[in-house]
């Protein structure tokens, strides 16, 4: 049997191989592209009509203040940007939504009301889907705002307000791929969103309330009582208990300590696994006769249940040396829980 012919190369034209293509991208090329994009963005900043932008911002503020919803729409890449800006406003506590133009023409336009504003993002201002949407949105009584990057276009002729976003050119060598135009749309929309945030005096706490799953939100929302261990999870003992009799309690609750209490649950002190090692080293076999009360720390750091969880973390890390837990007590020194560093980290703080 003769030998099989060699398999054809996946890249018969070696000039088109991935290795050759990768070598064609170098640091000077990338630097030149970033510098060009920076220049195009600077053109936008230098030529933006600020009074026009101010009227736009105030209009959105008035609509939001009057109980209206600020809707955004767009097609393609402009649609993605419009959706993102809408989400930014929602995260700032401003009623907003994205209205897909095609879906709007098939029933979703029913969400529009006469107190709402509809912001239409389009680079050219001649997007067919948006032009078809305009008369339908106008019939619902919504205030229409065109945001485009060409000064003369069909969309600006049929909207109540127009905003021009100056565009020098796209970074694309053919001036076609929408990369610079969408960048300035995003910068414009998100900057206006922050202006609205300031005008509405949104507090840090209110912002956090809209981001409960994020670290910022948790640090401003979660209290000690929300993340502490309590009741059967507490490693408790009495001061008269022998240390060696409490080893299971010390190790089984995952807190690294014992919480020493009296009959009325008042906190007397704490005994840690570190205290156990030091006691064993100092006392040797004598540890079998020692009680927890004899060796516990009677002045431990503590915290109240209504303190912020982030405050507990700061207290654990404060001088003279960090600790891994804080007993949680009420105003009468009654033990109600324990908060651990591991628990705080697990909660995302």
Automatic annotation (TrEMBL):
GO terms classed as biological process: carbohydrate derivative metabolic process; carbohydrate metabolic process
Name of one Pfam family that matches: SIS
Family (UniProt): Belongs to the SIS family. GutQ/KpsF subfamily.
Domain CBS stretches: 228-290, 296-349
Keyword set, alphabetical order: CBS domain, Repeat
Domain SIS residue range list: 57-202
GO MF entries: carbohydrate derivative binding; isomerase activity
CDD domains on file: CBS_pair_SIS_assoc (cd04604), SIS_Kpsf (cd05014)
InterPro entries: CBS_dom, CBS_dom_sf, KdsD/KpsF-type, SIS_dom, SIS_dom_sf, SIS_Kpsf
Site (Catalytically relevant): 77, 129, 170, 211
Record's protein name: Arabinose 5-phosphate isomerase
Native organism: Eucalyptus grandis (Flooded gum)
Keyword Mitochondrion in annotation: no
Domain of life: Eukaryota
